Amino acid sequence: MKDTPAQSSPIITLENVEKYYGDYHALRGISAEIGQGEFFSLLGPSGCGKTTLLRTIAGFEALSSGRLTIDGRDMAGVPANKRPTNMVFQSYAIFPHLSVAENVGFGLRRAPLSKAEKARAVGEALEMVGLAGYGARAAHALSGGQRQRVALARALILKPKVLLLDEPLSALDKKLREQMQLELRRLQRQVGITFILVTHDQEEALIMSDRIAVMFEGQIAQLDAPQMLYRRPVTRQVGEFIGVMNFLPARATMTDQDHIEVEASGLGRAVIGPDQVPGGFHPGQTASVGIRPETMSILFAGETTDRRVATGIVEDRAYYGDMTYYEVRLEGVERPMTISMKNLVGRPVLDRGAEARVAWDAGSLVLFA
Amino acid sequence: MKTLRVYAILYLCFLYAPIALLPIFAFNDGTIIAFPLRGFTLEWFRELAEIPALHEAVGNSLMIAVFSSLLATVLGICAARAGTRFEFPGKKGILGLIMLPLVLPEIIVAVSLLVVLLQLGLSLGAWSVILGHVLICMPFSIAILNASFQSLDVALEEAAIDLGETRLSSFRLITLPLVMPGIISSLLIAFTISLDEFIIAFFLTGTEPTLPVYLWGQLRFPQKIPVVMALGTLLVVASVILLTLAEYFRRRGAARTGQADSGGFL
């Protein structure tokens, strides 16, 4: 399956971008287009090259080969201070010897504006991030959340074409992080600027992004909208990295152009469509099917269904209050699979060792080569 | 515990009693350095003001100290920045070699410098003393400046560049103000070391003695000793003031960048 294209005209194009550090191959042939006004995330484990890619866009790292354009201009040889991008650093990089207002107004130093105009711009930027009236404070006396807002205001005051965010929420505690995720999203809609977010937190990427590029080992494994990424991962690696996915060994044969017959151990025979093989069908290879925990359910005593049913034993369970996660070993399968169930009123919680009937649908299978 | 306390007090006496004797005899109305004291006088300080050779030596020393501290600090900034920001082959070895004069006997440094300079056929003078003093001040400057640069987030300069500044202007606007306490501290310590230094100055000074070399020469004349005491008193006071200032700036710098105090020379 082809990557999902940007919904708007591209502001950034990457063509076959390569980056070497000595012998280390940090970026391996990255090609992508990032749309005007898009909230775009680079998601991957540490060391996958996502921060390197962000820094090449910012101009802090030179490309080894390939082409990068921003707003139609080739960026080869254009230094960071001449690029229409601004960055929010992971450490926020707030200048500790300057006040909040001096920090936010730093980018305007060279702007041909009067003192009053600059002061007004600083005031507006601070208001935008909810820090109106904080201008006179010393920067080093701010809390983590406030520093992040100052960094945002400072980067947005130059009205860049693209705002680059390097793990901006990783230093915040959970509650503040969740609040800032929504606020960043709101801010991005308000200013209409393209945001490129680097994160290793798949949940954060799913919540905030229009599209996500999942990166492993210097390559983009998949570039898609969050829902597609979750429902139709192109490789097992992507499926495992985003959320929880169960994998079962399977054999697959293509019966005709629109139907693929799958024989998955534990589940049995099923017929699926070509859209359920997002990585492309390769006959003859050892295959596996993936299935998400919440697309299956456990049938309790007396319940009937017209869905497909498999049987197994509850090996373990974890009760989370709103949800229960079961580890169910299906008949004929080595590893137990995870099934999540909402704890609805009157629904019992099964104990270890109980027999479980598992309802599933052919439509929620994903076939991997 | 009690023996430890006695030991500590004895130790401090051993350390500071000789220095405490300086001002006592500097104000004593008698040419012989011995108890009992014979009365209070400012005569020796007045005499200090009337010796042209002494004034020349002070002038030499101040000039040498100013240039040595400036040079050592500028070179120290380069070394500290390179050492904390960049990776290059042989980095550890190079930085280790720069720090070596800290533990090298000064007399060896002085003699080898003297031999090299004479072999090259160069005449000695203030400049050769400056050379030697830069060599021994550098480790102190680098140690102080390293701490300043290490506590700086690398992203700060990048952020300034990202906001439109050049490499040079971001260094001037962001890095320099933040390491300024370290620079002042380095200047003051290097100045103090150079001002007090004797061995290198003695070997390399040529015909224009520095203050410590001049002082040493005066010790041959017993009647001059009270004057030397007066001069020593002034030097001790000046050194203490300079070192206190240096430490003040170092601590202020640590507080300003929000770093924990990681020790220093004082």
List the helices and strands and how they pair.
The complex is a heterodimer of chains A (369) and B (266).
Chain A: E1 10-21, E2 24-35, E3 39-43, H1 50-58, E4 65-70, E5 73-74, E6 85-88, H2 100-104, H3 115-128, H4 144-156, E7 162-166, H5 174-191, E8 194-199, H6 202-208, E9 211-216, E10 219-224, H7 226-231, H8 236-241, E11 246-256, E12 259-264, E13 268-272, E14 287-291, E15 297-299, E16 308-319, E17 323-330, E18 337-342, E19 355-360, E20 366-368
Parallel strand pairs in A: 3-8, 3-9, 6-7, 7-8
Antiparallel strand pairs in A: 1-2, 1-4, 4-5, 9-10, 11-12, 11-14, 12-13, 14-20, 15-19, 16-17, 16-19, 17-18
Chain B: H1 2-26, H2 43-48, H3 52-85, H4 91-99, H5 106-119, H6 126-150, H7 154-162, H8 167-196, H9 199-204, H10 211-218, H11 225-256
Helix pairs in contact in B: 1-11, 3-6, 3-8, 3-10, 6-8, 7-8, 8-11
In summary, what is this structure?
The complex is a heterodimer of chains A (369) and B (266). Chain A is an alpha+beta fold and 369 residues long. Chain A has helices at 50-58, 100-104, 115-128, 144-156, 174-191, 202-208, 226-231, 236-241, and strands at 10-21, 24-35, 39-43, 65-70, 73-74, 85-88, 162-166, 194-199, 211-216, 219-224, 246-256, 259-264, 268-272, 287-291, 297-299, 308-319, 323-330, 337-342, 355-360, 366-368.
